[in-house]
Amino acid sequence: MISAKLQHLKITARKVRLVADLIRRKPVSEAEAILRFTAKKASAPILKLLQSAIANAKQNEKLNPSDLYISRIVVNDGPMQERVFPRSRGRADHITKRTSHITIELAPKEAAKILVKDKK
């Protein structure tokens, strides 16, 4: 398993999950194409993370990127920053600036076939 992590992304996890769901279980080349043409703010950081994972596969494991697929992509909540927004008559509203952590794992396509055979 080849993995890459992105932490403290200043986009809420709920919005990042919308993009992550588009590429889950897809081949790497297809996932890259989807991310390039998705008009969401979260698609650019996820694309960069995917390219980092592909580079890890090439450099560390000597794997061909065309043989890889996204086996797992997880988006978790990161730490929240609290801000105070002043209102009228001395009141204050609290604003939470949310962040997210993304983990992506790649696997060779042969591993997917083995997993399917084990389930039967």
Structural notes for this entry:
This protein has a single domain, classed as Ribosomal Protein L22, Chain A (Alpha-Beta Complex). Helices cover 42% and strands 32% of the residues. The protein contains four helices and five strands. The longest helix has 19 residues, at 43-61. The radius of gyration is 18 Å and the shape is elongated. The protein starts with a strand and ends with a helix.
List its salient traits.
120 residues, alpha+beta, Ribosomal Protein L22, Chain A, 3-stranded antiparallel sheet, two-stranded antiparallel ribbon, 5 strands, elongated
Summarize, please.
With 120 residues, the protein is of the alpha+beta class.
Q: What order do the strands of the largest sheet run in, or round the barrel if closed?
A: 1-5-2
Q: In the CATH hierarchy, what is the superfamily?
A: Ribosomal protein L22/L17
* CATH architecture heading: Alpha-Beta Complex
Low-confidence stretches: none
Intertermini distance: 23 Å
CATH topology: Ribosomal Protein L22, Chain A
Q: What is the fold's blueprint, element by element?
A:
Blueprint: E1 2-9, H1 13-23, H2 28-36, H3 43-61, E2 68-77, E3 81-86, E4 92-97, E5 100-108, H4 109-119
Antiparallel strand pairs: 1-5, 2-5, 3-4
